[in-house]
Amino acid sequence: MTVSTTTRRFAAALTVPLLIASAAACGSDDEDKAKPGTVPAVSSEDGKKPKIEKGEGDPPKGLKVKVLKEGKGEKVAKGDVLNASYHGQLWNGKVFDSTWQKGRTPASFQIGTGNVIKGWDEALVGKKLGSRVQLVIPPEKGYGAQGQPPQIPKNSTLVFVVDLKKTMPSKIDGKAVDTQNPDLPKVSSKISDKAPEIDIEKGAKAPDKLTSASVVEGDGKEVTDKSTVLANFSAKLWSGKPFANTWEQGGPQEFPVQQIPGWKDGLKGKKAGSRVVISVPEKDFPKEQRAQFKSGVVFSVDVLDVK
């Protein structure tokens, strides 16, 4: 991610996040004490940033999962979009990511479907909302021999504390509109587990100004120009070349609408549960990015939630 700012934002949204872990058998406190170094000690107050001690000795070979506090909510199910706070560090104690950092908020990820590291998928499915869970993830269930440079070296054991806050919708639930805007490519209103096709006719000319329209209309919370949306999206250049698809590369993610060109105005007034087609002309991108998006871009955005 060393090209443009916009491309980095897209790539960040499409990359498997540096977060979550898997569910093997949970060891009891007695088992953990009997095996020093298996699970680093955690000290924290409920809901506040945890402090995880540095791992001692050799890290465990397998996945370790410990429920530090069991919640009273529903169990997380495979395919849920989980909203969670997390703090992650290496076995040696070096922190590589944390939603408790200044300016950060809880993050959302689709769980149990291969969109995050195996450790998170295996560990968090079946846990109750409201729980605080500690994970010790061996390399093969994390980032393996390749690591995730520069934060995570190769063959790293990862240690997380995760607060399971809530689950969020993974599909829109609005109703198809009767007619689509003729200035925009046709996009299917069918709701499924795959991205709808953006059908750009050969030789079609992009609108010279920002244009957006709903092909599915929801009735949830309305998007403002300061909103953050939980969304799945796909995107194509008007030349027909696809370049982004969250359905295939990470699942739904949260995006401040101000961070992606065209979204602030294109989604304003639309409601959660909607599918919105947005055509963003070249001139709406920052100058240093216009050559990359010379033909303009078409987004198909499924707005799952708004905050």
TrEMBL record:
Compositional bias annotation for Basic and acidic residues: 45-64
Protein name in UniProt: Peptidyl-prolyl cis-trans isomerase
Catalytic reactions of this protein: [protein]-peptidylproline (omega=180) = [protein]-peptidylproline (omega=0)
InterPro entries with a match to the protein in the record: PPIase_dom_sf, PPIase_FKBP_dom
Record PANTHER family: 39 KDA FK506-BINDING NUCLEAR PROTEIN, FKBP-TYPE PEPTIDYL-PROLYL CIS-TRANS ISOMERASE FKPA
Pfam families documented for this protein: FKBP_C (PF00254)
GO molecular function, one term: peptidyl-prolyl cis-trans isomerase activity
Matching SUPFAM superfamilies: FKBP-like
Residues spanning the signal sequence: 1-27
Domain of life: Bacteria
Similarity-based family: Belongs to the FKBP-type PPIase family.
Protein's organism: Streptomyces armeniacus
Keyword Hydrolase: no
EC number(s) per entry: 5.2.1.8
All residue ranges annotated as the PPIase FKBP-type domain in the record: 79-168, 226-281
Coiled coil: none
Region (Disordered): 26-64
Keyword annotations from UniProtKB, A to Z: Isomerase, Rotamase, Signal
Upper lineage: Bacteria, Bacillati, Actinomycetota, Actinomycetes, Kitasatosporales
